[in-house]
C-alpha cells in the first residue's frame, strides 16, 4: 500500500487522483475484512441455537424411549453435548475470530489512513518534521513517547 503511494508520487500523479485511488483501495480492503468478521459473528450467533436444536432432538429421542431405560442415557448425553458443542463453537472459535478480525480492521483503517495522509503530505513537499509530527498524531500515546525518545 505504501509502495503504491510512493509510485504515484514518483510518477507525478495529481494529489486528488492519489487521494481518491488510495482511499478507494483502503475502503475496499476494509470492506473485505468486515465481511469476514460478519460471517464469523453470524456463525457465532447461530451456533448456540443449533446446539439447542440438537438438545431438543436428543430430548425427543429420550422421551420417545422412556419405556427402555437403557436408551435414556445416550439420548440425554446427545442432548447435553449438543448444547455444549453449540456454546463451544460460538465462544471458543467463531466469536473470538470475529473479534480479532474487527480489531484487525480498526488497526488497518488507522494504518492505511496514516499512510494516505503521509503520502499526500509528501506529494505536497511538506517539511519532513511537519509530516512526522502530523503522522505521530495517529499513534497511541505510549508509541508517541517512544518516538520522542528516539529523536
Query: What best-fitting shape do the alpha-carbon axes yield?
Result: elongated
Derived from helix and strand composition plus strand pairing, the structural class reads: mainly alpha
Total beta strands: 0
> Uncertain spans, ≥5 residues at pLDDT below 50?
none
Radius of gyration from the CA trace?
A: 26 Å
Give the SSE map.
Elements: H1 2-10, H2 15-64, H3 72-123, H4 128-136, H5 141-150
Helix pairs in contact: 1-3, 2-3, 3-4
Care to give the gist of this entry?
The protein is mainly alpha-helical and 151 residues long.
How would you sum up this structure, described in words?
The protein is mainly alpha-helical and 151 residues long. It has one domain (2-107). It has five helices and no strands. It has helices spanning 2-10, 15-64, 72-123, 128-136, 141-150. It is elongated. The two termini are 26 Å apart. The mean pLDDT is 90.
Amino acid at each position: 500500500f505504501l509502495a503504491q503511494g510512493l509510485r504515484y508520487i514518483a510518477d507525478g500523479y495529481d494529489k486528488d487522483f492519489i487521494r481518491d485511488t488510495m482511499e478507494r483501495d483502503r475502503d475496499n480492503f476494509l470492506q473485505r475484512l468486515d465481511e469476514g468478521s460478519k460471517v464469523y459473528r453470524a456463525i457465532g450467533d447461530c451456533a448456540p441455537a443449533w446446539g439447542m436444536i440438537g438438545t431438543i432432538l436428543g430430548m425427543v429421542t429420550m422421551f420417545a424411549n422412556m419405556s427402555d431405560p437403557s436408551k435414556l442415557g445416550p439420548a440425554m448425553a446427545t442432548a447435553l453435548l449438543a448444547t455444549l458443542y453449540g456454546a463451544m463453537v460460538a465462544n471458543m472459535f467463531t466469536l473470538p475470530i470475529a473479534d480479532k478480525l474487527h480489531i484487525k480492521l480498526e488497526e488497518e483503517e488507522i494504518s492505511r489512513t496514516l499512510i494516505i495522509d503521509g503520502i499526500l503530505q509528501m506529494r505536497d513537499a511538506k517539511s519532513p518534521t511537519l509530516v512526522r509530527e502530523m503522522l505521530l498524531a495517529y499513534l497511541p500515546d505510549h508509541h508517541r513517547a517512544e518516538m520522542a525518545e528516539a529523536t
